[in-house]
Specification:
5-stranded mixed sheet, alpha+beta, capsid protein of prophage fold, about 350 residues, 16 strands
């Protein structure tokens, strides 16, 4: 019997490499993915210095300057390993091709297998996106039946803020004062300019409604282009010198797969919750990465990092199974480049 080439390990890996994360998974699409061949993830949290140099005199030994403030962090990779049994329709076309080697059977079988692979791959991508948003919030808490962990990304307390007045009722002056203070924190501690802010449509509406309803002077801070863009796409480009981005992407929590993490089973959840803003500089100094660890499967090539897939035929009961595995963890090396504002509106 002839077997499909797509079931061969090298071809399977090639299929995985061709998949791209959906556009709605914004962080997974933009955050660098770094291969890490070691069993434990390690990274340095770097904090700069605001000290000034000390004068010296000619022909004397130079002053020794300490290195930038650093702390070395480590954590185990988060290990994803899931499998599924191919559906009867998929198995039908695999058997049909094995019996006839017809082009139609091959096309149908490959399409059916690719759909099954894509389904598991999407689950993994959604989990990676959830981890990245959690890391940007300052903590990644894993509370699953098989894994419990809490990773602290070393945000300063001053970079986890709550406005004095809820933005649902705040005046334009209060909102601008909050944003100015957060930008100043990033400029002072992170030594970079804040350039972007992520939030949800609901949270951003507090800004627009506050300014639009406050009279001509405050409202003039919103240009006609900003107003047009707000009604067209829900964003406020350039407001307070930031590129405001709306994230409304959601994920579903399978009832049988989780306990209390990320939340109660069977509910639709947002990657970025309402009433939260993440402001900062996401590009300079490569402040956030997704480390990709080595495969733990015996069938994977030596020192292989990345998503690993394999299929096999189960004899009793007769079935074809597909498995996907991924070792990964987000890291933040420059936490002072971000501010996370929670509870914008109680």
């Amino acid at each position: 019997m002839t077997d499909l080439s797509i079931l061969q390990p090298t071809v399977l890996r090639g299929v995985l490499e061709r998949f791209t994360a959906p556009e709605k998974l914004e962080l997974l699409n933009r955050v660098p993915q770094t291969p890490w061949p070691f069993p434990t993830a390690e990274w340095e949290v770097i904090r700069g210095s605001r000290n000034i140099a000390r004068p010296n005199v000619p022909n004397s030994e130079a002053h020794i300057v300490p290195r930038l403030g650093r702390s070395k962090e480590s954590a185990s990779f988060v290990y994803l390993r899931e499998k599924k049994v191919f559906e009867p329709t998929t198995l039908h076309w695999i058997r049909k091709f094995a019996e006839t080697t017809s082009d139609l059977a091959k096309t149908q079988a490959e399409s059916a297998i690719t759909r099954e692979i894509g389904d598991l791959n999407t689950r993994f991508d959604n989990f990676a996106e959830w981890m990245l948003w959690s890391a940007l919030g300052g903590n990644l808490k894993l509370d699953f039946p098989d894994v419990q962990a809490d990773i602290d990304y070393k945000y300063l307390a001053s970079h986890k803020v709550t406005p004095g007045t809820s933005w649902a009722t705040a005046t334009p002056a209060q909102i601008t004062a909050d944003i100015q203070a957060w930008k100043r924190l990033i400029r002072r501690d992170g030594r970079v300019e804040a350039t972007e802010a992520y939030t949800t449509e609901k949270t951003l509406s507090y800004i627009y409604n506050s300014f639009a309803g406050a009279g001509s002077a405050p409202a003039s801070l919103l240009s006609d282009r900003m107003k047009d863009e707000y009604f067209r796409s829900g964003t406020l480009p350039g407001f307070m010198g930031l590129n405001w981005k709306i994230n409304e992407a959601v994920y579903d929590v399978a009832g049988a797969s989780y306990t209390s993490s990320p939340t109660a089973p069977g509910q639709e959840q947002m990657f970025l919750p309402d009433n939260r803003i993440i402001i900062g500089n996401f590009t300079e100094n490569r402040p956030i990465e997704l480390l990709i660890g080595p495969s733990a499967d015996d069938d994977a090539p030596e020192n292989f990092t990345g998503k690993f897939a394999k299929t096999w035929k189960q004899e009793d009961p007769s079935a074809r199974q597909y498995l996907l595995e991924w070792n990964l963890i987000p890291i933040i090396t420059r936490p002072e480049q971000f501010v996370v504002a929670n509870s914008i509106a109680p």
